[in-house]
Amino acid sequence: QDFHGFNLSGHDGSMISAENLKAMVAEAASVSKPRNGEKLVIGFANLQRDVSFCLKVEEGLKANAEAAGVELVIADNRLDGATALANAQSFLQRNVDYVIEFQTDANFGATIMQQMNDASTKVTAIDIPMPGATFFGANNPRSGYMGGAYLGQAAIAKFGADKVKEGYFVVGELPQSGAIPAMRTGGQVEGFLAAVEGFSPDHVIKIDTKNVLEESFTQMTNVLGRIPAGVPIMVTAINDQSATGMLRAVKQAGREADLVVVGMGADEIQTMMDEPTFVASVGYFPERYGNYLLPLALAQLAGKETPSTVLVNHVIVTKGNVCEFYSNFKCADDKGIDFQFPDAKFQEHLAALRQSPELKGFENLIPSN
Amino acid sequence: MPTAAPRLHMQGIGKSFGGVPVLSGVDFTVEAGEVVALLGSNGAGKSTLMKILTGLYGRDAGTIAVDGETVDFAAPSAAVAAGVRLLPQEISVMPDMTVAENIFAGDLPLKKGLLFRSVDDAAMRRRSRELLDQLGFGAIDPDTVMKRLSVAEQRIVEIARALAGQARILIMDEPTAALTEQEATLIFRIIRRLKAQSVSVVYISHYLSEVFEISDRIAVLRDGRNAGTFRTAETNHADVLAAMLGNTVGDLYAEGGAAKGEEILSVEALSLPGKLDDIGFSIRAGEILGVFGLVGSGIEVLGRAIYGALGPMKAGRIRLGGREYRPASPVAGKRSGIGFVAAERKKEGIIADLTVRENIALSFQERFERGLFVSKSAETSHAKKWIDGLGIRTRGPEQRIRTLSGGNQQKVCIARWLVEGVELLILEEPTRGVDVGARKEIYGKLRDLADRGFAVLVLSSDVEEVAGLGDRALVLDRGRVVGRFGRGATPAQLMAATSADPAFHAA
Amino acid sequence: MATATPATISATRRRMTSLLGRPWSGVAVLLVFYIGLVVVFSVLSPFFLSVRNMLSIGSNVAFIGLMAATGTPLIIAGGLDLSVAAIAGLTGVVISLLHMQGLDIWLAVAVAVFVAAAIGWINGLFTTRLKLNPLIVTLGMMSIVSGLALVMTGGLTRPLMVPGFNVIGQGRVFGVPLPLILMLVTFLGLWLVLTRTRFGRHVYASGGNAEAARLIGIPVERTVVTLYIVSALSGAVAGIVLAAMLGAAAPNSAGQHLLTVIAAIILGGTSLNGGRGSVWGTLLAILILGTLNNGLTLMNVSSFWQDVTRGVVLMLAVSLDQIRSRALGD
Amino acid sequence: MATATPATISATRRRMTSLLGRPWSGVAVLLVFYIGLVVVFSVLSPFFLSVRNMLSIGSNVAFIGLMAATGTPLIIAGGLDLSVAAIAGLTGVVISLLHMQGLDIWLAVAVAVFVAAAIGWINGLFTTRLKLNPLIVTLGMMSIVSGLALVMTGGLTRPLMVPGFNVIGQGRVFGVPLPLILMLVTFLGLWLVLTRTRFGRHVYASGGNAEAARLIGIPVERTVVTLYIVSALSGAVAGIVLAAMLGAAAPNSAGQHLLTVIAAIILGGTSLNGGRGSVWGTLLAILILGTLNNGLTLMNVSSFWQDVTRGVVLMLAVSLDQIRSRALGD
Ligand SMILES: Nc1ncnc2c1ncn2[C@@H]1O[C@H](COP(=O)(O)OP(=O)(O)OP(=O)(O)O)[C@@H](O)[C@H]1O
Ligand SMILES: Nc1ncnc2c1ncn2[C@@H]1O[C@H](COP(=O)(O)OP(=O)(O)OP(=O)(O)O)[C@@H](O)[C@H]1O
Ligand SMILES: O[C@@H]1[C@@H](O)[C@H](O)OC[C@H]1O
Ligand SMILES: [Mg+2]
Ligand SMILES: [Mg+2]
Question: Which of A249, C133, C280, D151 has the most CB within a 10 Å radius?
C-alpha cells in the first residue's frame, strides 16, 4: 500500500519528495522511538567504497537521508567478513535504529543477523541476502543471462552468425567472490550460448579479473594470444570496470575491429558512450537504490508490511536509449539491435540452476523468474 | 723557538653515554710527523676519543683544532675531506665488494666515458695492487670479494684503504690485534714512511713492545681522564703500566701447576682435506696446551674440528675422557664436556643484545631451571660468582654485553663454560684486543682452571702467549704439526719452527 | 622554593634516562601512545568509552593478534612467515569441507590443525635446512596454500554453523569474548616462554647472533623450525576463531590482514634483523591499530580518511619511540 | 680417449666453480630457469611461442617492472619502499584531476611527478635523518598516499583519454610496445649507473656496511634519500604507463602488486640485508612471473591453480639458486 507517496510495486525509481520523506520519518519515529532519544539513525555498511557501483548506492542513500532528515552512519566492509562483523558491532554500539548491509558473502549473514536480532534491529541486505533481512538488489541469474544474450545477438548483427561461430567469447569473472557473482557470470555464458546457436564451448574463455581494471587488462592481453587474428572477439564481464579493462587490452593489441563488448551494471556510462565497440550494458541503476532503500527502511520502522524480497528490474542500456535513464547523456540515433530476451531458455537455465550441486545451500538466491 | 700550532690539539674533551661519563676533560696533542701512542686499559675511552675526533660521535665538551684551525666534523666524511682518517678498532668493510672497491669506495677514480664519467676499474685495480705491494701483501688479489678473505687479510685491506687517500692525521685503533708480529713489522715500515712524509699517526694498541718500537710519545688515559704523557725514549714499560693501571703488572704468566691428572683428550691422525693433515696430540687434566700457528696454518680449524663446529668428522680417532668420541655438532661437543671460545668475539661470541647474566647462563641454560622455568636468581648468583671470579668489570649482571669493553666481553665468553662437567676448554685467540691488565687476569684464570682439573687447549697466533702460557706447545704449519715443545720454549723457538713466509696466503 | 640546579637537573635526567633505558621502555612508549589514543577517542566520540566497546575491539583484533603473537618470536629468532594468514584461510576451509563430508567437527579441527603444523614444518625445513630466503619461501607457501583453499572450495565461502564449534568465536566467559581470552592467553603464554624458559633464551640467542648461538651449542635450526610450526598453528587457531566467529569459512578470509600482522610486530619494537623484541609491544601495536579502526568508524570518518589517518598514526608511533631513543643518546 | 683423472676433474670443477661464482651467476641460474619455462610453455601451448605473445608479456609486466627496477638499488642500499605502488595510483589520479580542471596534460604530468618526488624525499628523510624503520615508514606512507588518492577521486576510476598521453601506454615503436621499451631502458640505465658510476658503488657500499661507508666519507644518507626519490619517481612513471595503457586512472590500481614487486627483487638475488643484488636478476624474476601468468592463462589453467603453481615456481627458483651456492661450497 501507499506510504507517503511510496508504493513499491508501482515505484518508478525516482526519489520521493523531501516533504513526503519527512512525513515518513515522522511516522516512523512515532512508532519506533529513536534510540538516542533525538532522531532516527540508520547504519549503512558499504561493500567496498572504491567500486563505482557501491559508491553510487552510497550517494543515493546519502541524498535520501539528507532530504528526510535522518542521520546516516556509514562504514566500509572492505570486501571482508571480519570487517563487516566489526562494522555491524559498531552500529549497535551507536544505537542505530535500522541497518542497511551491503555485505561480502551470504554465508557471513547469519552471524551478523544474530547480533542484529539480539538488538531487535531490522536490516535490509543489498545484493547479498541475509537470513531474516529484507532483500533488495540484483537478480543475478537474470541480469547475467540478459547481458550474455544481448552480446550474442549484437555479435551476430555485427559479424553474421557464421563468422561469430569462429569467434571467441571471453567472460571476465570474479571467481573468489563466491556464489553470487558466479550466478551472474554463469548467466552471461548461458545467455550467450542461448543466443548463438551452435557456438562451440571450446571458444568460451574465462579470465579472473580480480575486479580491477588493470588485472582485466593483463589477463585479456594474455588470452588474446589464443585467439586467431581476424575472428570476432566478444567480451563481457562481472562489471563495467572489468569490461573496460578488457576492451582496452583488445584496443592496445590493435584488434578493435573484431570486438564487441557488453558491460554489466551500467555504472560507467561515459566509457560506453566513448567506445564504439562498447554497445550496451545491463542496467542496475545503483544510484536509485537509495530511493527504494530509505523509504523501505522507514516503512518498516513505521510498522508497515513490506515484501521480503525486492529485485531490481534490469534493463539493457544502450547508446540509443541511455537518455531515458540518464538525462545527462544524449541518445544516439542508432537504436542498436532489436533485443529478444530468450525467455523459455532462461526458464530452463533457472531450472538447471536449482538442480546444480554447486549451488546446494544457495537455492534461496535463485529467483523464480 | 717559533711554536707552530700542533697538527692536532684536542682540549677538555668530555663525553657521557646515557648520563654515565666516559671522558672528562681529556687533552690530546699530536705534532706533525709525530707518532703518538694512545694507551689505556679496556674501556678507558681511547676509541671514544678518536670517534669524537672523526665526527662519529658528538661531544659534550671541549674543542678540537687541526693545524691551528678549530674544526668540528659533523660526520666522518668531513673528517676524511680534511685529511683525518680513522682505521677503526672493529673490522669495518663492505663484505660483498671486492678488495679494490673496499680500498677506493670513498674516493673512486673516474674516467671519461661516452655519456658520463665512469669508475675506472682498471686504475682502481692497479693502484690497489700497488698499495698492497707497498705494504708487502702483494698476494692479496684486488678482485677478490672481501668476505672470502681471512680476518687478518681484511685488516690489511683496511690499512691499505687508510693509506690510499692523502691523510694529514692517520688514526690506527689496534691495527695489529689480529696480525702476527711479522705482519705488524710490515705495518711499522709504512708508519715510518708516513712519518717521513710528515703525516701524524695516532697509534692505539695493547702491545707495549709495539708501542715502544713505533711511537715518539705515549699518552695514557685512565677511566676517561688524562693519566700522563711520556716521551717514549725517556720512559719504560713499568712507568707506563703504572699510569694505565695504577699499579704494575709483574709477570704476565703464572707458574705452571704441578700435578697433571689423567689424559682428557687424545687425538690421532686427525685430517681435514686441505686444512689439517694427520694431527696427533693429547692433553691431560690440569694441563694447558698451546698451539701456535700463523693464519692458514690450521689453528683456525683445529679447535672447531674437535668441538664439532665443522660437522661430523670422518678421518682420525679422538678419545675424550677415556671414551671414544666423534665430533658431530656443537650440541654434541658440549654434551661430551667440551667448552669452546671462538676467536671472533663480536661475530661468533657475544649475543650483543642480551645481558651479561643471560650471556653467561646461555650455554648451560638447563642448569638454571627450576621446574619449567628459568630461575633468574640462580642465573644471577652464577653470573655474580664469575663476575667476581674473573674480575669482569661491569655495572652488574643486568648490563647489556654490547656495552662492555672488549676485554670484559672476552671474560664473559669464558665464564660461560665454567660449570661442572666441562672437562676440556678450547679457546681461540683468548686475549685478542685485551689490555695487559685483563690479559694477565685471563691467563691467571686459565691457570686456575687447569689447576682445578680442566684440560685447556689454546690456539693462538700470538707466539708470546703460546710460549708463556702453555705447559707444552705445538706449532702448526700448513695443517701439519711441525714442532712440539715442553714448558720454557721461547717465542723465537716456536717461530723458528714455522717455515712459513711471513706474508701469509693460501697457496 | 627550590630552583633547579645543574646537579638536580642532571640527577632528574639520569633517573629519567634510566627509566627510559629499561628494556621495556619501547613498550612503555607504545602504552603511553595507546592511552593517549583512548583518551582522544573518549573525548571525540560518546560511544567509544564503554566496557562493551573495549571488549568488542578486543574480540575484533583477536584473530590478527593471534597471528602477530607467534610471529613475534619467529621474527626475533630471525625468521618471517608471510603464509600465516593463508593458513588461517585454509584451516577454515578444511574444517568445513571435512565436516560437510560427515566427519565429526572436532576431528575435522584436529585434521586441519595437523595440516597447518605440517605446512609450518615445511616452511621451517626450507628456510633452515635448505637455507632458502624466508620471504620467498613463505610468500611461495602463501600462494600455494591460498590457491589450494580456493581450489578446494571453488572460491566459495562455506557455511560452518555447528553450535559447539561456533562458541569458540562467539562465546563469552564472564562477559569476555572467547577470542579475546584466547588471544590474551596466547600472549601471556608466549611472554612466559620467551622470558622464563630455556627455549625463550634460545629464541633471542638464535636471532641475535645465529653463529654465536650455534657455537655455544644451541640448537638454532630446531628452535627456528619449532617457531615456524608454532606460527602455522597460530594461523590455524586464527582461522578457527574467524570461521567460528563468522559462522562461515572463506578461503581468502585473512589474507588482506597480512600486512597488518607484520606492521604490528615491527611497530611493537621487534627488529626484522632478529634478536630483539617483545610480545607486549606487539599486543599494544595490535590494540592501537584496532582502536584506531574502531574509534574512527564510531566517529563516522570515511574509510578513505581512515587510511590516511592510519598512515599518520603509524609514523607518529614509530617517531615517538625514536625520540625516546634519542633522549637516551643511544 | 682421455679418462677423467682427479686432476682434470678438479680443474673442470674449478673452472665451473669460478664461472658459477661470478657475481652474475645467480642471474645465470634465473636465466636458465626462465629459458626452461619458455621451453615448457612452448611445448604445452601452441599459442605461447610467438613474437606477438612475447611482446605482450613484456608490456604486461612493464609497470611492475619499472617499480621493481628502482626498488632493486634501494634495497641494495639498505632501504625498502612499500609505498611505491600507492604512488603509482596517486600519480594517475593527480594527472586526471588536474587535466579535468583544464590543465595541459603535460603540465599535469609534471605536477604529478613532482608530487611523487616529494613523497620519495619524505620517505628518505624519515628513514635516514630520523632513522625510523623503513618498513613502518613506507607502509604508513602507502596508507596515507592511497588514502589521499581515494579521497581525491571519491574512490572512482577516472577516465583519462588524451591521445598524445595514451600513446605512452598504447604506442609501439617498430612494433615494440612503448611500456616495454620504457621498462627496458630503465633497467639498462640502472645497470649502467649501478655498475659504472661512482653513485652505483656508493649504493653497494651504503647497503653493504653503512657504518664503514660513512667512515670513508661516502654520503650514505644522501645516497639513500636519492634512491627513495628515484623509487617514488618510478612509481610515478609506472602510474603514468598504467593510466595511459588503461585510458583511466584508478586510485587503487597498482596496490595489489606490491608483494610481486618485492618478491621479484628478492627472487632476483638482491639481499634484504643490503649490499648485494643486480637489476638483471630482478628483470628475469619479473619475466619469469609474467611468463608464468601468461603461459598458464593461455593453457586455460584456472586462476586458483595459477596461485598454486606460482608458489611452487617461486620455491623452485630459489632452491635452484641455493643448489648453485652449495655447489660452490659457500
Ligand atoms: N651503554 C652504557 N651506558 C652507560 N654507561 C656505560 C655504558 N657502557 C659502559 N658504560 C660505563 O662506562 C664506564 C667505563 O666502562 P668500562 O666498565 O668498560 O671500563 P673499565 O671498567 O674502566 O674498563 P676495563 O675493566 O675494561 O679495563 C663504566 O662506568 C661503564 O659502566
Ligand atoms: N655507543 C656507546 N654506548 C654506550 N657506551 C659506550 C659506547 N661506546 C663506548 N661506550 C663505553 O665507553 C667506555 C669507553 O669505551 P671505548 O671503546 O672508548 O674504550 P677503549 O679505551 O677504546 O677500550 P678497548 O681497549 O677495549 O677498545 C666503555 O665503558 C664503553 O663501554
Ligand atoms: O562485483 C560487484 C558485485 O558483486 C556487486 O553486487 O555490485 C558491485 C559489483 O562491482
Ligand atoms: Mg671495561
Ligand atoms: Mg677501543
Answer: A249
